[in-house]
Design brief:
- InterPro entries: Adhesion/Biosynth-related, FAS1_dom_sf, FAS1_domain.
- The structure is a single chain.
- The chain is 28% helix and 22% strand.
- The protein is an alpha+beta fold.
- The strands form two sheets. It has a seven-stranded mixed beta sheet. Strands 1-2 form a two-stranded antiparallel sheet.
């Protein structure tokens, strides 16, 4: 994988974690706002720190604003890998972003090992396995479709109605729990399981 490719998908991930923080703040500000008559009004919201499906990011979002309650482990992994320093790349890319719960499913001790200096190379490859070149919305993902990641690995799409799952190289299945989060250089889908390439331990 070239340095240019790293730049692009690192920015895609950065835009995602920044976008969830921005939308969360906007949502919280809207809740409980009083109208001109003094009556409290409310708006529909998602859980704190999350971004609802179909949301969009701004053009000036940065990784420093990232406080997504559901993706703090991803944010930490990005920092440890050094990829948050990358700030260019046109894309477009599609990112399957694991939630905190997804990382908690990993075997005991494996996440800690990845976050150590000795595990940096494996961490970078793991994060990159969640990124596909091209912009794919939920509607564009098709049942049985094979997606090639930027590491050269393969992800397989399964689609039954509105339910979409992604099968990784080891046969594990991740469900998309937030779809079509649009960034300035691609599309993000939040997933409930960390995707693992074939042969990874």
């Amino acid at each position: 994988m070239t340095k240019k490719t790293y730049l692009g998908w690192a920015l895609a991930l950065s835009l995602f974690v920044g976008s969830t923080a921005l939308v969360s703040a906007q949502t919280q500000n809207a809740v409980g706002r009083a109208d001109s008559s003094g009556t409290m009004t409310t708006t529909s919201t998602t859980s704190e720190g999350t971004m609802k499906a179909g949301g969009a990011t701004g053009r000036d979002l940065t990784i420093s604003a990232a406080k997504s309650a559901d993706h703090t482990v991803l944010f930490r992994a990005l920092r440890v890998s050094g990829l948050t320093e990358q700030a260019s790349g046109k894309g477009p890319y599609t990112v399957f972003a694991p939630t905190n719960e997804a990382f908690s499913k990993l075997p005991e001790g494996s996440l800690d090992a990845l976050l150590k200096p000795a595990g940096k190379q494996k961490l970078v490859k793991l994060l990159a396995y969640h990124v596909v070149k091209g912009k794919f919305s939920a509607e564009q993902l098709q049942d049985g479709q094979k997606l090639k990641t930027v590491t050269g690995g393969t992800l397989t799409v399964s689609k039954q109605g509105d339910a979409i799952t992604i099968t990784d190289g080891q046969g594990s299945v991740a469900t998309i729990n937030q779809a079509d989060i649009e960034a300035t250089n691609g599309m993000i889908h939040s997933v409930d399981t960390v995707l693992m390439p074939a042969g990874a331990k």
